[in-house]
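Morning - magnesium ion inputs below, output right after.
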Amino acid sequence: MYLNFVNFWGSLIESRGIFFEAAQMTLALTAISILIAIFIGLMFAFMKISKIKPLEWLANIYIYVVRGTPLIVQIFVFYYGLTEIWMISGFWSVALGLAFHNGAYIAEIFRGSIQSIGKGQTEAGRSLGMSNILTMRRIILPQAFRRALPPLGNQFIIGLKDSSLAAFIGVSEIFAVATTQGSNTFDYMTWLLVSAVWYLILVFLLTLAVSAIEKKMAVSD
Amino acid sequence: MSEQMIQVNKLNKYFGDLHVLKDIDFHVEESEVVVLIGASGSGKSTMLRCLNFLEMKNSGELYIKGEQIDPKKDNLNQVRQQVGMVFQHFNLFPHKTVLGNVIEAPLQVKKVSKAQAKKEGKELLEKVGLGDKADDYPARLSGGQKQRVAIARALAMKPEIMLFDEPTSALDPELVGEVLQTMKDLAKEGMTMVVVTHEMGFAREVADRVVYMHDGKIVETGAPKDIFENPKEERTQAFLSSIL
Ligand SMILES: Nc1ncnc2c1ncn2[C@@H]1O[C@H](COP(=O)(O)OP(=O)(O)OP(=O)(O)O)[C@@H](O)[C@H]1O
Ligand SMILES: [Mg+2]
């Protein structure tokens, strides 16, 4: 046990170079997929509250499919589908797969937060002569974003951790590097724990970033 | 058509099967202060909200400053700029400062320059006695202060008509006076106002006309003195004795 413990710390420190690179890959994957997911989420949230039936149905089907199928299946469908049709890289197919997946959850987060803003706010905007779109953009969305932030932060963390599935597509992110190290040294446990530490660090940083934004947006309380 | 600020002919409004406004005929002259009274559910709010198209009438005619408004054809955003509204629950924008609330619509809708909007916004805040609160957020204000900001915000669009839907009903009793005073000042300046309120003192003192509504109909209209001292209709008498 003692030896293993020493081994763990040694490995963690010695391997910091390759894992730092892998962490950058994880971050890139997470950042790109989350950014696209926010865009998708907003779009489908608007579709759901649009009161235009076909758009509502489309959004519901999308969310139903994402919720009802495993993420790993979605990622492989994107991988085989996209790399063959568009010849895009494994990295981008996973990024889009993750975006597709997180987009559904983020759509629900946005829908909920937009609908949680009282109708008095819309009425106040409209009564001042603001158009529907202007009221949405200037009055409702800023408040809704603020309310969405805690659950969004949660979803970002899930997205970050889920990006480990990219290992199965051959993207050299943290988990992939850990399993490679494990099979090279036959010491899987050490390297899995090393990867866990890296994920914890990234999640910690992400949490800090989200709460910094939350604080900044809370000035009006 | 005479030059009324507001003219309503045979207006009907339904919520589903519920007939809420029944053949309403109603008008407001320039600089007139009309107070709407009536029991809960009689349709006062709905009436007011039809006047700035927060609710859409089902039938009837609605003229603002002599022009018939057709919600399908006319730009309601432009109509609403002339008709300010103050709500029972203030509905201030919590993510904006007091001044931010006041200048939002002039900036975004009228495209007034920021400097100009701020200058006028501050003047309005001075006028409602809140010049020192410009940079505070609404969460830090008392109810009475919030409502005065809401009045300043509506005035910032330079409306010609102001609608008030129970502006003091959500306030602690000691805060009612400051809001009523602001409204009195506004009336004195000649603002055309339609006010739904249970403040009979205000109605007596400020109203040119009191309109009593019951069950979606206007039952009686008259000078405050006549309505309060000699109501002709039995229903008006019953209502007044129930609240006074
Ligand atoms: N959005 C709505 N949907 C369905 N029914 C409504 C709606 N708004 C109002 N009503 C109904 O219309 C009737 C008139 O309501 P309104 O709010 O105009 O009354 P009011 O005179 O303002 O009452 P109060 O003094 O309680 O504010 C009531 O029966 C009310 O339940
Ligand atoms: Mg009402």
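Note: The two ends of chain B are 38 Å apart (CA to CA).

O.
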